[in-house]
Amino acid sequence: MTTMNRRELGRTDGPLEDELEDAVDRIVSEGVQRLHRSWREVLTTGFIAGIEVAMGLLAYLAIRNVTHSAMVASLGFSIGFIALLLGRSELFTEGFLVPVTTVVAKRARVGQLFKLWSGTLVANLAGGWVLMWLIMLAFPDLHHVTVESAVHYATAPLSGRTFALAVLGGAAITLMTRMQHGTDSTPAMIAAAVAGAFLLAGLELFHSILDSLLIFGALVTGKAPITYLDWAQWFGYTLLGNVLGGFILITLLRLVRSHERLAEERASVRAGTPTPD
After folding, report:
1. Which has the higher per-residue pLDDT, 25 or 155?
2. In the chain, where does DSSP find H-type helix?
3. Domain ranges of the chain
4. Closest Cα partner for 166 from 223, 209, 110?
5. At residue 179, what are phi and psi to the nearest 5 degrees?
6. CA separation (Å) from 95 to 176, 185, 244, 265?
7. How does pLDDT run across 205-262, given as a tens digit for each residue?
8. Would the CA dihedral through 167, 172, 175, 176 be positive or negative?
9. In the CATH scheme, what architecture does the domain 15-268 have?
10. Which letter does DSSP use for residue 107 in this model?
């Protein structure tokens, strides 16, 4: 089946199947808006996302405190991902598929991508720290399970296993993003958020933002046998693993799959279609 055959048989005149054409259009359209945010918008959106993820962690800790099961508690954590979805906020590790695709399509610049990444990362951590401080203050009964969960991550030395957990963590959340952009059905998007929460929290994959907030909560209690230096060492290799997992295992393959459609986007930019500032 040639590209011309697919153009003639499909609903659209693009080089991909109709569903993929729609998905790429949604990704680029959203990415243009996200990458052209001001610093104020990037930081406030990221800060709110940190708060929303921490609310999901509150549900996770409350359920795990009773059930002692990370898999069961992950259903509670899905509240955080659903809030991110419906509230249109920005989590750092969601910033691979959509922004990178937009930059490859020449609808935004590399500098804008790094602005989004750096601002969102810092704001996620700041917003999450604030809410974890409030949660630990409000729910002293959750201190023990928070410390127990945090120590599991913060004391994990760099090894083949722990780095693989970080790579899988980045792949899992980018897969969630890919699923959500493959449909315009809100229930389907929510189902993808629940699935992503199960993979990350239920299987205790290493996630640079989610698990950092657990560690922050434990540090706030003053009862954890860990320090911010322990967190920084863990955070460094986990962040790298998340980026590699999200970019190489998911985003890069989507770019290869959609290269003809993205080439058309680049051609339209060269032809004079304006890119927003």
Report:
1. 155
2. 3-9, 18-35, 39-67, 70-87, 97-104, 110-138, 143-154, 160-180, 186-197, 210-221, 228-244, 252-257, 259-270
3. 15-268
4. 209
5. -65, -40
6. 12, 21, 12, 20
7. 999 999 999 999 999 999 999 999 999 999 999 999 999 998 888 778 777 777 777 7
8. negative
9. Up-down Bundle (1.20)
10. S
